[in-house]
């Protein structure tokens, strides 16, 4: 199947050819005709499947079927994304594929000055790409009008829910035309119960598209686990990058402080490195990503949220320096490589303390990940039994631990994802 067979107009086909694409991906083959026919859609697609073009191309074509209202250009298409990086990526896609069409677009997110965004909105835009937090800011200021939106896209809806944006989304929806008066497109990596509930609230009899089994990993990604002591992870990582002549590698850590520390250590090892996370300014994050893409930086160390939506062509290596707390995040991490049909390698450095996390991931993806012990970096005898001795069947608490058990349990910690945590998370990343 070719792009011509999907019914796209000549201007869009020209832009596609200029990007060197000849054949649509699986999600594009299924989604584009449905969207062009005017149906709402609920699409399940993993990262790297071409889903951004899958909604950008038909969205741009659909805008040409109706005439905008007279006067200042109203916002006719709204794309909501969970992170700044993903918003910028979608904005680039709209500009790339719409370069031969007379549409204006704007990208708005937090972490940058708001006045230039206000100026652009005042001039009028057809397509608006936004993160929920900054969009609400503009709505409260009265600098954006969503009353004439014809098309709505919820991109990576699962991540927006994970980040606690559901209340923000509901507030935004109240300012849009009713679902019967707009076309709505929802894209998600999974069809969880929460996603289905979201679709039932905001979509009008959607068509369902799923191009890969739920929580499946990309087939072209070679996955490998390297057991290693926690204290020797950095040493092993430097060795692998140097001995393997890796020119470009994305490394994941669990925390912002951990990302900074690892980046400094790798720099001391002679590897050009940068870190991106939520404490970095948007300008710094954009600069680091640009330098990584053009080869000026060899290693990019990132946290999960900062790296969400990163689109790096032909990224050959992803390393899990630390396994994620949430197994589903493993899929999103390794999905940064093996994109657009290219091969990729995902390596996880696993210490004895992370064995349970590894088992949870393998249970999720329904397969065991091959392991390779690298000579000179074997797990020490002292580290191997550390977590098993403490939890072996029949073991009794001793010493201070026994005394603590007699005094009673501590009060339960606040649940992850409590309202206050969600609020701060939204404010930080939008």
Kindly list the characteristics that best describe this protein.
18 helices; 2 domains; Rossmann fold; 430 residues
Question: How is this structure best described in words?
Answer:
There is one protein chain. The chain has 430 residues and is of the alpha/beta class. The protein has two domains: 208 residues, P-loop containing nucleotide triphosphate hydrolases (Rossmann fold); 167 residues, P-loop containing nucleotide triphosphate hydrolases (Rossmann fold). Helices cover 40% and strands 14% of the residues. It has 18 helices and 13 strands. Strands 3-4-2-5-6-1-7 form a seven-stranded parallel beta sheet, sandwiched between helices. A six-stranded parallel beta sheet has the order 8-13-12-9-11-10, with helices on both faces. Strand 3, helix 5 and strand 4 form a beta-alpha-beta unit. The protein is globular. The chain starts with 9 loop residues before the first helix and ends with a helix. The C terminus is likely disordered.
Helix content range: 40-55%
Cα-to-Cα separation, first versus last residue: 38 Å
Tally of strands: 13
Q: Globular, elongated, flat, extended or rod-shaped: what is the shape?
A: globular
Major sheet attributes: 7 strands, parallel
CATH class label of the largest domain? Alpha Beta
Please name the CATH architecture of the largest domain: 3-Layer(aba) Sandwich
Number of domains: 2
pLDDT < 50 runs, ≥5 residues: 385-430
| Tally of individual helices | 18
CATH topology of the largest domain: Rossmann fold
Q: What proportion of the residues form beta strands (DSSP E)?
A: 5-15%
Report the average pLDDT across residues.
83
The CATH superfamily name of the largest domain is: P-loop containing nucleotide triphosphate hydrolases
Spatial strand sequence of the major β-sheet: 3-4-2-5-6-1-7
* Rg estimate, integer Å: 23 Å
- Structural class of the secondary structure composition? alpha/beta
